[in-house]
Amino acid sequence: MAQFDLPLEALREYRSDSPEPDGFDAHWARTIAAARAHDVILERRPVETGLSAVDTWDVRFAGFDGHPIAAWWTVPRHRRAHRGVVVEYLGYGRGRGLPHERLLWSAAGYAHLLMDSRGQGGQHGNGGDTVDPVGTPPSATGFVTRGIADPAEHYYRRLVADAVRAVDAARALNGEADAPVVVSGNSQGGALALAAGGLVPDVSAVLAGVPFLCHPRRALMITEASPWSEVVNYLSVHRDAVDVALGTLDFVDGVNFARRGRAPLHASVGLRDTVCPPSTVFAAFNAWGEHAEAAVDREIEVYPFNHHEGGDAVHTRRQLDWLAGVLGGL
User: Fold this and answer.
1) Is 100 a catalytic residue?
2) What is the pTM of this model?
3) Of 84, 167, 313, 323, which residue is least crowded by CB atoms under 10 Å?
4) What's the CA gap between 162 and 185, in Å, rounded?
């Protein structure tokens, strides 16, 4: 698809006009406090991977409402002290898969926690291991509309709480209180990285590639690509639920999390991406750190001829270089 959104010059200045919901901070404070009422590490078991350079553990940590969330904890066998921890979140429909699939961060010398996405893992990759025990009223196929009639019941309230608790779990597993913690992900994972970066004020850096769930009100006006098509399908049936659904999505809008960011941010955007339209990504990027007391470093990689894959492996190398520079200055 050709570039379909605003020109790049306009994107760099674009701001969301969506309302921030009343009670946003209180909603998330209650959610995270309730999740943190549970001991974070539920189970930790070493696994044999056939790899000689890393050690891996199969972990269960307490996420939303204490629900057990699966994760892989992988540590370089010859790791430098205080190298840092990368907490990684997954894209839409993907589960944590097998422990040898994602070795980038441990190969770069970081301890790595890969969080499973509750209820997902049946659309891509090699599956997931975390159930979502919460039932919801009628919804469209997928996850975005599950519980969309109430912010307290919305699927992404649970998943964002899991993402915050993954940071707590990584710190507990790492055992070094002052080690840097980085949150990272692409697409849905990028959305969770923005959320964790906004809700956990002392993370050291945020890597958010082509983030989903930013500026939903605009996304629904300019694209019907999946997963936004789920909301379109739902509202085509529940015609009187538009205001309620949009109000719920405001509570998980990446723009609202971005305003609360404190850590340096490295983001990316594909200018032909219909899944995460450029203006929605820039809306979050341009809002990053608005509520901070001082200026917050941020950088975005723009890929004019790419779709939702963004910069792919080229972008990964840029992330590695950027992160080394940021953590090297701590």
Assistant:
1) no
2) 0.97
3) 313
4) 14
